[in-house]
Amino acid sequence: MDSGMEFYKEIVDVTCEELLGIMDVSLAQQAKDVVKSIMGRSVRTKDPLFWPAGAQILGLVSAAGRMSRYKGDTVSELKSDNENNEDEEDSDNSADIRSKCLATISAHLDMWVNGYESRIGFVDDALSGFCFVKAYEMTHEDKYKEAADKIAQFILTAPRDDQGSIIYNPGRNLANIFADGIGQVSMFMAAYMSAFPDSDIVISSGSRLDASKQIKNFFEMGVDKKSGLNYHGYSLSDNQKKGLLGWGRAFGWLFMGVAETAVTAVNSTMEDENSKCSEDCPEKKRCFMNSAFNVTGLYRRMCQTALDYQRPDGGWSWQIQGVEGHIDMSATGMIAYSIARGYNAGLIADDLTEKFDKMRECMLAHTSGGKVMDALSSCDDFGVHYQTYGHYPWGQGMVLAALSEMP
Questions:
Q1: Is pLDDT above 80 for 274?
Q2: Average pLDDT of the chain?
């Protein structure tokens, strides 16, 4: 096995192990959570699909997808028997990695269904829903579509503001729109409507599963017009932009949503006789890309902004315009993943080989024994960012997703 594949496999192995045990909390950690709760800080949720788990599932489903595409491009009849044997070994390893990733996702889904009665409690569960759509496309196992259907129904009926944007945490407030939520639901909406256009949920949804509408609203209300960077969120009711400008993960969440929506839009309008849009098409009203909003152009602008702020070491800082600040490997993974998604779909004309090489080198430099380090800790609220960096599920999952998508 070559060193690159071995390094990659280490990250996969750690991610699988951590996802399978993500709901196991030690007594010591429970005690810490009690103290943090008393202090008013966020603590882990009892939702198995919450975004930290979703980040790891995203890493694994992306890895499974990469291994599915692996064809041993370097195999040649001109190679020696020894070289061909090495390629066969890499091909076998890719099949093993794919199987392990899908088995881990399957086990986690079963645990959610059997141990938690398929409960959905947060908008953040949309990230796991996106992954289930992708897992269904790879395996065609009904349980993934059933899970995605449940999440689609939850998102369909989620509370919204007067523009139709999904409120992030209606239990705590009645107004705030977060980049986290918009990015996650946009990823899910785009993937779900593309994969299941004839489902009853899609047919009855109207514009309530329109990914581009969610993105358009955020860019109207939550983005700084001068810099093009987004705030963490906003409130329509008091016309206030909220949180830091250019916080890395907020940019990453929004970028991931824009990337997936743009990629799906391009794929859904490819020039063949089965996918051309017609002005009198009776299904036009429920096509998620008919909001007269150029999400592809927006994706390209976000990509250029991200590359403008890429650090010399290839990563991104916790606040992306502060290129000399502390690196955040969760933001780095999210942004690299988003660039790779569009690049692979042909949305970026420039050759980014050197940029991707720097990203990959950066991720390697901040990974030890398969564990991704130097990710920023969780955010408690708008502008509340504890400058604690270490090994977290969101850093692990996002870096694996990025490595799996990068060419």
A1: no
A2: 86
Domains and CATH numbers, the chain: 3-24+46-271+282-405 (1.50.10.10)
d(CA 140, CA 160): 32
Using CA atoms in the order 153, 299, 161, 128, what is the torsion angle rounded to 10 degrees?
30
183 closest CA partner among 384, 405, 341: 341
State how far the Cα of 377 lies from the Cα of 330, in Å rounded to an integer: 9
The residue type of 258 is: V
Any residues with CB less than 8 A from the CB of 326 and at least 6 apart, and which?
317, 318, 374, 376, 387, 389
pLDDT of residue 286: 39
β-pair type (384-385, 379-381): antiparallel
Q: With DSSP H G I counted as helix, E B as strand and the rest as coil, what are the percentages for the chain, rounded to 5? A: 55, 5, 35
* All residues at 6 or more sequence positions from 287 whose CB lies less than 8 Å from its CB, including other chains: 268, 277, 281
Q: Mean pLDDT over residues 37-48, rounded?
A: 63
Q: Which amino acid is at 318?
A: W
pTM of the model: 0.88
Q: CA 285, CA 316: separation in Å to the nearest integer?
A: 39
300's CB contacts (< 8 A; 6+ apart) are 342, 347, 348
Higher pLDDT, 69 or 15: 15
